[in-house]
Structure formats: structure tokens, C-alpha cells
Amino acid sequence: FPFAAFSIKKGRESGLLVPEPGYNPSDGKYLKNIAYYLPINDYIDMTLSADFTEKSGWGTEFDMPYRKRYDYNGNLHALYRKHISDITNYSDEWSVRAYHQQKFYNKSEFSLNLDFASSRQVWDNQADVNKRLQESITSNISYRKPFKSSTLYMSGAYTEDLINDTRFITLPTFSYSLPSKPVYELFPVNSDSLKNKDYWWKNFTYSWRSYGTH
Q1: Residue 145 β-bridge partners
Q2: How far is 178 from 201, CA to CA, in rounded Å?
Q3: Residues near 92 by Cβ (< 8 Å), separated by ≥ 6?
Q4: The pTM is what?
Q5: pLDDT (tens digit, 9 = 90+) per residue, 99-132?
Q6: How far apart are CA 72 and CA 53, in angstroms?
Q7: Residues 6+ apart with CB under 8 A from 3
Q8: Could you give the CA distance from residue 77 to residue 49 in angstroms, rounded to a whole number?
Q9: Are 178 and 149 in contact, with CB atoms under 8 Å apart?
Q10: DSSP run (H or E) holding 193
Q11: 120: which DSSP letter?
Q12: 20, 82, 157, 188: which could form a disulfide with 170 (CB 3.0–4.6 Å)?
């Protein structure tokens, strides 16, 4: 008989989640989101789930979000599916996504975003339409550090076209920037009268930025 259970304990508790039974023409009968939830500590928890379908195979999914306020946050997500087209035709599909963002005591910031997949078929059973129609995936990494009035920035990226099976790499890029300053500060002005008067060239400013790649 249908039933429901509700925990009377405070805070996060580990346990089984309610699965989703159903039917559709492409999958046949299915039982999705057979999952177990586990809070590891105050900052991390994880969920391990599985899906079983009558016609299209089975799959398992791992999700581990984490967050520490003012310090870091991120998520690790992995997906594996045994995709069955017919009795003699099947494929192993997988995807791995990782995200991490962290702030350090010296006001520097680090960001990492990784996204890899075997093919688009791994998302065939996803409820999100945009995910099922996704044509490319991108991974990137960046680091930013301020130095008083200047800033150092480093980054790199990797993009994979899942339709045409092509890959693009943006080589590590470095930039160093200084704030804008009035042009007249480039030239010494000894006369107090020149310093105090509002000449037109005093309204111009300059800034400097350097780029480099490897």
C-alpha cells in the first residue's frame, strides 16, 4: 500500500529516497531514482542513485556537492549508463563534471570547471531538454590575484564539439593590468600654475595591460 515516512530528527539524516516508478513508450516500464543519501560532514554530502528501464537499459549516478561559507564550494557529479538499442546493440555511456571555486586569505580566487562525456547519448533520459540537446561541453580553469592597485589573471579552456567530434584548446593566457591614470602624470610638471589650471590634456587617462600565452 502507498505510505510515507517523515523523520522527526533535526538536521540532515542519511537514508533511502523515494524512487519513481512509471512507463513511457521509449523506455517501457521503469523505476528511476533508487537513491541513498549520505551527509558526510557539515560541509559535504553525497547521493548515489540508479535507474532501471525495460527497453533502454540501466544507469547509475553519483553526486557530491560541498560548501564551506566564505572559503570554497563545488560539486562532483558522475554518470554511467548501459544504453540498449536492441538485443544485440548496446553502448557504454558516461559523463563526469566537476566544479570548484575557492577564495584565499590574500583575496586571490581559484576556479575550476571540468566537463567530459562519451557522447550525447548519455543524457537521453534526462528530464532537462537543454541537456539532451547539448552540442558541446567546455572545461576551464582560472586564477585571479590582486596586487594593491594591479591584478594578475591566468586562465585556460578546453571545448569539445559532440556533434562533429572536434576539440578546441585555448592555451593558458596570462594578463596583468594596472588602473587608469591621468596622462599628465607621465610628464613632470614643476610649475604650480600648470598643475592648478584645468588644461584639456588633463582629462585624458591611460591604462596598461599585458597578455601572454604558452
Answers
A1: 152
A2: 21
A3: 80, 81, 82, 83, 118
A4: 0.74
A5: 999 999 888 999 999 999 988 888 876 777 777 7
A6: 38
A7: none
A8: 12
A9: yes
A10: helix 192-196
A11: G
A12: 157
